[in-house]
UniProtKB/TrEMBL annotation:
It holds the Pfam family AAA_28. This is ATPase. It comes from the Bacteria. InterPro entries: NadR/Ttd14_AAA_dom, P-loop_NTPase. The lineage of its organism: Bacteria, Pseudomonadati, Bacteroidota, Flavobacteriia, Flavobacteriales. Residues 6-168 form the NadR/Ttd14 AAA domain.
Length: 178
């Protein structure tokens, strides 16, 4: 078996970070979501909400960051690398806000392919907002719908992770890989 680049997707507050942290604690190679990094970097430069103020620039920075993550993941010694959100997430968010984007966004989704996609469905009981997550639960559900639609449009079969304890969700994911 070759290298597996496994992406965990889902709307805001669906449990992605908890799953990635759990996989990391078990010794798996994991790449965190980079949008917080991009947002914090913009704040240092005086742009409070880059996604709201300059959505295309934000998306371009995310796209570049996710391409770098992809190349880094390929270079890892580990057979399986987990990534919190993939390149098609960028397009899903652009669709969500109704923004158009240059053709190179679409080309990146076609060029950079992942092995498996695990989808965490919206889950109101665990949803919380914070300073980097300004969407409400209804918006989170809409984003989740755009994510599934976008990934499927690039030919991915999504594996839906059941709503369960973080440990059971991780066991479910690993059971589809090992």
């Amino acid at each position: 078996m070759g290298k597996e680049l496994v992406v965990i997707i889902g709307g805001p507050g669906s449990g992605k970070t908890t799953i990635i942290e759990g996989l990391t604690a078990r010794g798996y190679t994991c790449y965190p979501e980079i949008s917080r990094e991009v947002t914090l970097e913009a704040r240092k430069q005086g742009i409070e909400q880059l996604f709201l103020e300059k959505p295309l620039l934000f998306s371009e920075l995310l796209l570049e960051g996710r391409k770098k993550q992809y190349h880094s993941a390929l270079a890892e010694d580990s057979r399986i690398v987990f990534i919190d959100r993939g390149i098609p997430d960028v397009l899903a968010y652009m669709h969500y806000i109704g923004d158009s984007y240059p053709v190179f966004f679409d080309q990146a989704c076609r060029e950079y392919k992942y092995s498996k996609i695990f989808f965490l469905p919206p889950w109101e009981e665990i949803y919380t907002a914070d300073e980097a997550r300004y969407e409400n639960y209804e918006q989170a559900k809409l984003i989740a719908a755009h994510l599934t639609e976008t990934y499927r449009s690039y030919g991915y079969d999504l594996i839906e992770v059941p709503k369960d304890t973080p440990d059971n969700r991780i066991i479910f994911i690993l059971g589809h890989l090992l």
